[in-house]
Amino acid sequence: MIRVRLDIAYDGRDFAGWARQRELRTVQGVLEQMIANLVGAEGEITCAGRTDAGVHARGQVAHVDVIGWPADLDTWRLNRALPEDVRVLAITVVPNEFDARFSALWRRYTYLVSDSPIGPAPLDRGQVLQWGKELNLDAMNSASRMLLGEHDFTAYCKMREGASAVRELIDLRSERVGSDVVITVTADAFCHSMVRSLIGALLPVGDGRKPVTWPFEMLTSGIRGATVMPPYPLVLEEVGYPPDDQLLDRQLQTKQHRVLSEPDA
Amino acid sequence: MIRVRLDIAYDGRDFAGWARQRELRTVQGVLEQMIANLVGAEGEITCAGRTDAGVHARGQVAHVDVIGWPADLDTWRLNRALPEDVRVLAITVVPNEFDARFSALWRRYTYLVSDSPIGPAPLDRGQVLQWGKELNLDAMNSASRMLLGEHDFTAYCKMREGASAVRELIDLRSERVGSDVVITVTADAFCHSMVRSLIGALLPVGDGRKPVTWPFEMLTSGIRGATVMPPYPLVLEEVGYPPDDQLLDRQLQTKQHRVLSEPDA
Questions:
Q1: Residue ranges, CATH 3.30.70.580, chain B
Q2: CB–CB of B148/B133 below 8 Å?
Q3: A214-221 vs A137-145: helix axis angle to the nearest 10?
Q4: Domain spanning B2-94: which CATH class is it, in words?
Q5: pTM score, whole prediction
Q6: Which residues of chain B neighbour A86 with C-beta distances below 8 Å?
Q7: Measured between beta carbons, which residues in chain A are less than 8 angstroms from residue B125?
Q8: Which of B7, B11, B14, B52 is catalytic?
Q9: CATH 3.30.70.660 describes domain A106-243
Q10: 3-class secondary structure, A241
Q11: What is the pLDDT of residue A2?
Q12: What is the average per-residue pLDDT within A228-257?
């Protein structure tokens, strides 16, 4: 068996998320079907970030194990077999120690918000959240800095029973780009709905309805209190991995860390 | 009567172009209806660039004459009355010598093309032309430079009978921005389908099917030979005007120039 890495972009609008679901159109489902047709392997595809319904990707990473990859199956042929709303940007044979999910060092997402009284630019409106009040980015960034580092993010997660919510938030910042506000979120990993809950905590700070300390107080309370913001302005931008000789260590470390921290996190 | 300038952006997808048409949804129709409802005036709106069906705008400019503009009718209230795919970015009371169409010095458009074998990025695909062969931008830019200046662009226009096709092409250049090719076209004015015909002349030069001299030879021949490319990658970006004290001169000059050059251009 060889392991193949796929770098993937998609428009999440017409997908019921990444994860395969019976009877629903999903990114995993579409890609696995394509692999089955072109490679003749019924391999399961594992990704770095299992995006929710409506969430987009410009830099999703996945891996799949196959007996062999046809020599003439390049990105051009592969994309011809795919619908226009999902593209495979690169195909790379990787060491077996590369695990798209467990070898990842970090995931970076962006979230687009317009606080203009005019609303989002017409051509971008499907990918920008309209926020009715002007946002104070200094306040948002002060609130963000208090959340950085390793914490139990239970207050920002839709938890699976018994799972750990300990994550390291590496970067969280808001900046104006053109007429929009871009919020960038980077963490070693995210639990379910964590990005959109963080955004939901920052925006009421930005418009002055909540104090700058509110997101941090929620974090320490462990009680969910932020709105999970809608998915359409969210894009998985990039996933970071260590050099090849550290892929296995990273995998073991990620798995161990999660197991260890599960009971008492 | 006072004259009001409106700066306008729209997503052209669901409009049958700018110009009002019975029974069809047009930008002019939607805006005139809004003005009639909010200002109580049945004024005709005049724009700088009468975009075709499917063409977008980030910087359309228009003017309308009204008896008075309600003091509380700002962009926020005005946009609340408009559908999401058209926005009024600014409302400015201007001198009566300001004519959105005839006072304009230049119009700037952009056209987006992807020559990647992978095709356009999924999130941008509705606004990018997919071109199957790699584009040589040096060749395209050499061909473009030969077209600059004042010429009779009959070969690039769907002509109205008896109208002049003399225009000054101020800028025409192709550059890579991210994974796309952006073609920028600026002229004092454009005749019908001129931008999309120029694009249709440059792309076969870029992929090597036509010589660099082909677009210029077509120009001098006066015979239409380029495909009119599709509208969805085309955006009216900006319109330039002179200072207020030159608005009237410019208007007269534009009108005179067109009349003079009509019979024998």
A1: 2-94
A2: no
A3: 30
A4: alpha beta
A5: 0.89
A6: 122
A7: 11, 84-85
A8: B52
A9: yes
A10: coil
A11: 93
A12: 93
